[in-house]
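Schema walk-through. Below, the input block comes first and the output block second. Nothing else is stored per chain. Lengths vary across the set, and this one has 311 residues.
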Amino acid sequence: MKPLRILFAGTPEFAAPALDWLIERNRPIAVLSQPDRPAGRGRKLRASAVKQRAEKAGIPVLQPSTLKSAAILETLKSLHPELLVTAAYGLLLPPAVLQLPRLGCWNLHASLLPRWRGASPIQQAILAGDDESGVTLMQMDAGLDTGDMIVQRRTRIAQHESAGQLHDRLAVIAAELLGDALEQLAHDQLPGPEPQDDQQARHAPLIEKQQARLDWTLDAATLARRVRAYNPWPVAFGPLDGQVIRVFQARALESRPAGVEPGRAIIEPDHADRLRISCGSGALEILELQSPNRRRMSAPEWLRAQPRLRA
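--- output ---
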């Protein structure tokens, strides 16, 4: 099939597999990515995952802070794109950009729209206890993830799957979905877009670090989902024995010893290597955690350094 003149827009790792697919099979004419951001302890500017891949492949990269300027619009017009594909780009496309490619603009979104429109669909699906997630390829409009749906692909959310693990699986699914859609488009077999049911829409807002705090008065199942949803960022945290711990892995237990108030460690002589914390309902067994200024470690390792708790 004749390659399309595709302009790709994406920023983080989620978008990288889709760009890799295009580089191998339908090389983009250019890539849009967010400006470099400070990262790491030194706060040095770091290029996005998408920019790094594009530059390695020798593809021109554009990094405007806005798509509303006349200058960037003229630059995009000069590229004569037939299709614009976005994946976790981070900027809304203004009407002038949406109308530019003759085939319009596609977006790969990490949820089963209209559920979880917005910036944190993966985390919100886990927090809500959803049984499944997936990727939606949609025809973009001026709204936030409100455009007509072209095709979806579903996947079950595993019982103990973290947001990071689900993210990586959905990124691969997104690349496969894009590839299949482009193949169908080339053979005039792509299904017509279907409108979303706005009554079923749920919003997935930007995540703030404070939302990852573990409130031990909540039930253990809710807290276990919070641990999964906020791994790898911002990482769930909560008070324990006078310090604030970060929790990377945990599992909910339905029962706990009677009379133990929420937030207290439960360490039994017969299971001295198990760290459980009493919750409003049930208990949360901590599997991997980190104390301030210490490395992350398993619960048995952590307990060996806490003789007062084991006493």
